[in-house]
Amino acid sequence: MKPSVLVARAVFPEVVERLRQHFEVEDNPADEVFDKPELIRRLQGKAGAFTTGSVVIDAEVLDANPQLKVVANMAVGYNNFDVPACTARGVLCTNTPDVLTETTADFGFALMMAAARRISESEHYLRRGEWHKWFYDQFTGSDIHGATLGVLGMGRIGQAIARRGALGFGMRVIYHNRSCLAPDIESQCRATYVDKERLLRESDHLVIVMPYSPAAHHAIGAPELALMKPTATLTNIARGGIVDDAALARALADKRIAAAGLDVYEGEPAVHPDLLKVPNVVLTPHIASATVATRRAMADLAADNLIAALGFGPNAGKPPTPLNPEVLRP
Ligand code: 8YV
Question: β-strand 148-152 against 92-94: which pairing, if any?
Fold first, then answer.
């Protein structure tokens, strides 16, 4: 008998078909967002789950489903998983690194440029029919080329953003991270390690790409925003909750910083109402990895992980991107 798996959110039908070659699949083509009791119910009897960032796998879900063996996230971020709780119960967790790095870095750069050059703000003005004449300081923003790019969180995506800044736009790149990069990677990215305070004080354009953890909650709040230049921009493509959105909305309204670009929000898909009121912020609905090719690559990698973790396919027993590989050891 084939093992059963749950595909918890809607995904490419071709990927669901691949899973059906190995598993009894309960999928979710209507793309309902299950609350916890419903998720627990749907997981009954399932050996594996294909999840996205909105599907929370915690101790309660695991304890209600002791038969579960693997949870495969279609995302590089995995703060929706309680990984220690999974490890303690022998449940494998996987994510989708690498396949989205360049696409996400492209988007981070686009959002930063849109904020610095006031693209959304000026488009809204034009659409409102307010453009009647050109004038010398109309929507003047700040330069990207030659400016100082600050990267908070220098993992794969942070490094890809740094390379774009240094090699494509002649930016000076500084970064802050839990640890310094190896010298060869620092020189590839032409990036210099600084402490967090210096990063905040010296960045013309700050891009946040660090993973979310409870320790990272409100890593950027009012005190941190107060250290930034009044001409600076802040871009967050990491996770909601790293930035205190209420404090950011106040800083934008008071022109404590010039502009922001946000793709992620505390409590998304809800957006702090004050952010909707300030004009100098570009707001996008968590789409940094959203190109057709990349979303397909993410879905395929999540499926590869699920198939291999449950002992099928060419990588049987060796899922490509495990988060807690200790679970696999005999
Ligand atoms: C996903 C992301 O779109 O990979 C991540 O961590 O944030 C995005 O690429 C989202 O998490 C859906 O799973």
Answer: unpaired
The CA distance from 111 to 289, in Å, is 13
Kindly give the distance from the C-alpha atom of residue 279 to the centroid of ligand 1, in angstroms, as a whole number.
Answer: 26
Residue 89 contacts residue 64 (beta carbons within 8 Å) = no
- What lies within 8 Å, CB to CB, of 45 at 6+ separation is 4, 67
**Alpha-carbon span 224 to 221, nearest angstrom:** 5
Residue 287, pLDDT > 80, answer yes
- Judge whether 286 counts as a catalytic residue: yes
126 Cα distance to chain centroid: 31
pTM summary value: 0.97
CB 297 within 8 Å of CB 14: no
CB-based contacts of 193, cutoff 8 Å, min separation 6 = 174, 175, 176, 177, 180, 181, 186
* Strand ranges inside 137-187, DSSP E: 148-152, 172-176
At 122 the pLDDT is 98
CA distance 327 to 322: 9
Ligand 1 within 6 A of 76 CB? Answer: yes
Strand 191-193's sheet: what is its strand order? 191-193, 172-176, 148-152, 205-208, 233-236, 259-262, 281-283
Question: Is the CB–ligand 1 distance for residue 281 below 6 Å?
Answer: no
* Residue tagged active-site, from 205, 239, 272, 295: 239
Structure confidence by residue, pLDDT tens digits, 32-86: 999 999 999 999 999 999 999 999 999 999 999 999 999 999 999 999 999 999 9
